[in-house]
Amino acid sequence: MSVQITDDEIRQIILRRKQKEKERKRRKKRIALAICLVFLAGILGFSFSTGGGIFTLFQTRGVIFIDAGHGGEDPGAEALGRKEKNDTLELALKVRKYLRRKRFKVVMSRTDDVNVDRPERAEMANEAEAKLMVSLHRNQSDGEGQGVEAWIHSGGNSSATLLADNILRNLEKEGFTYRKIGTGTLPDASDNYSENRYSSMPSCIIEVGFISNESDNQRFDSNLSGNAKAIANGIETTYETLYEKDSEE
User: Fold this and answer.
1) Name one GO biological process term (predicted).
2) Can you list the alpha helix ranges (DSSP code H) found in the chain?
3) Is the predicted pLDDT of residue 70 greater than 50, yes or no?
């Protein structure tokens, strides 16, 4: 025996289905909202537990100037089939990435294979009102030279020394030999490289291993991201000491 369903009953069935669908969508929205609230609460808890507020999560910190040494018609040091200008740019772009993750605004002297005069690089950093400037280079030697070293202003600025030391110590943890922090220039300790002479903020030149040394090149290539993080962390540690420590006390 067939059951006859009236038009009114059909409308009631359709209405109940629509109501169930609406309720299902409402439940999904409530669940999504709850997940968002839990996530936000976790972020807020972390932010305040580290001494900041919600605004510190999204604020941009100071400007950091990263200089990729040489470029364009200036290849820099050349050895073992490599050109310094290529290595410095590849590393600088990685350093920029990690500094941005730390909420720094990063200004670079170059982002492709072009040459910028050395005094102009320092002037670019000054115009950007950078808090710190790091110029990345590779070293070269006819002998058995290896390891990382830094060059700062001949005046031996303590802030620049701190910046250089923090970076070199981090690179040492990545396997490089910590050679030295030099003042002035290699030929003349009373002279200065343009990056340090003309910059108005703490600055240093970092020689990231010897391009003429196979072992240093291996450390450079196989751990490029680790080296970039080490440099970025050294910059951040210095920035915190020089510019954020007093504001947190």
Assistant:
1) peptidoglycan catabolic process
2) 7-49, 84-101, 118-127, 158-173, 194-197, 214-222, 224-239, 245-248
3) yes
